[in-house]
Amino acid sequence: MNKTQFLDARNIGAIYMCGIIGVIGQDAPSLVVHGLKMLEYRGYDSSGVAVISEGTLEIRKNTGKLEEVEKKEKFSELNGNISIGHNRWCTHGAVTKENSHPHTDCTESIAVVHNGIIENYLELKEKLIANGHSFKTQTDTEIVPHLIEEKINAGKNFETAVKETCNKLEGRFAIVVVKKDEKQMIGARRGSPLVMGIGDGKYFLASDVPAFLSSTRKVIFLEDNEMAVIGSEAKILNFKTNVAVQRQVQEISWTAEEAEKGEYPHYLIKEIMEQGVSLHRAVNQDETRIKEVAQMINAAFGTYIVGCGTAGKVGLAGTYIFSKVAKKHINFAIGSEFPQYHDFLTPKSLTIAISQSGETADTLEAMEATKETGGKLASIVNVMGSTMQRMSDGYIMVNAGPEKAVASTKATTGQLAILYLLAFASAGKLPEGKQLLDKTCGAISGMLNKELTEKVKTLANKLKSHENIYIIGRGLNYPIALEAAIKLQEVSYIHAEGFAGGELKHGPLALITKDTPCIVLVGNDETRKDVLSNAREIKARGGYIIGISPENSEVFDEWIQVPDVGICSPIVNIIPIQLLAYFIGVEKGNDIDRCRNLAKAVTVK
Ligand code: AGP
Question: Which of helix, strand or coil describes residue 367?
Answer without folding.
Answer: helix
